[in-house]
Amino acid sequence: MATVRIPTPLRGLTDGEATVACPGATVGDVLRALDREHPGVASRIIDDAGMVQRFVNVFVGERDVRELAGLESAVVDADVLSIVPAVAGGAGGASGHDGSLADHIGVGSFLAHGGGTHDPFTGAVVPGIPVATTFARDDAYALTSDDHMYVRDHDDAVRRVEAVVQRLEGAAATRVFASGMAAITAVVRSLRPGQTMVLQTAIYWAATATLRRLCEHHGIKLVEVDCVDTLAAEAIIAAERPALVMVEALSNPMMGVVDIPALAAATHAVGGTLVVDATVATPLSLPALSLGADLVLHSATKSMNGHSDVLAGVVSTADDPIWPKCSRASW
Fold first, then answer.
1. What is the 3-state secondary structure (H, E, C) of 211-265?
2. pTM for the predicted model, two decimal places
3. Which one of 3.50.50.60, 3.40.640.10, 1.10.238.10, 3.40.50.720 gives the CATH number of domain 156-327?
4. 197-217, pLDDT tens digit by residue?
């Protein structure tokens, strides 16, 4: 059992106490020990991403703590998730949360920090954008980094975005695409000729036009129905037995509202996959996966980014079987 000295800038959080008994060897262990001896203190730290970073910065700056944690003062894990998960119960714990950073700090702080803190090597508070398309190999033609072969699939900036959206959606996996239409196309190309797709009417015109051409070209039967009318949609789904049902919630531009749980039940009853385009709503106001959707997609160009300086699409899954078909690399 080690007695860890709490760095001076944090003493105000502990009513003048400056030490904490800690049996572990990680920053998370110290946070949990701190919360046991001074209830509520760790929660006050992790409720604010800025305070989390402040804690980490002063924590690794103390010699005794640095030795205990096995950390170098110049290297802080940019993913703060390893610090906080078990403080409030963690996955399956009393808190009922899944242990993600988004569960323990305000979503505004989570988004402001991009799901992390800063570059561990340079200290940059904004992550860099990779400009190389390929990565080095050694004399035996082995990659110098196993996670970096070609930028299409190994872009660290894209991976960071995918990790943030995955946590916002509560998804099993997330993939970023070049545009919202690219994301929609990737999902629909998972269908085989002869299968049926049900599509909501009065949605984004480019999506409707593209899907009509795509389905005709690939021999996919496309059935369009007003999915705001839940009974009509359920009847069509039961009769057509589609492999894929795609709806918008809220719809663009009519702001139509669909009953996602009801449509999910109807779709799953015939063995289909329910896809929800939540571009207008964003994950902040529509947890589509938790309502029963199998896939949720966004034109990240619009509400998610602000329709100003980014063109992107994103698809997340609750671990649906068609995911490998729509998320794999183009080659």
1. HHHHHHHHCCEEEEECCCCHHHHHHHHHHHCCCEEEEECCCCCCCCCCCHHHHHH
2. 0.69
3. 3.40.640.10
4. 999 999 999 999 999 999 999
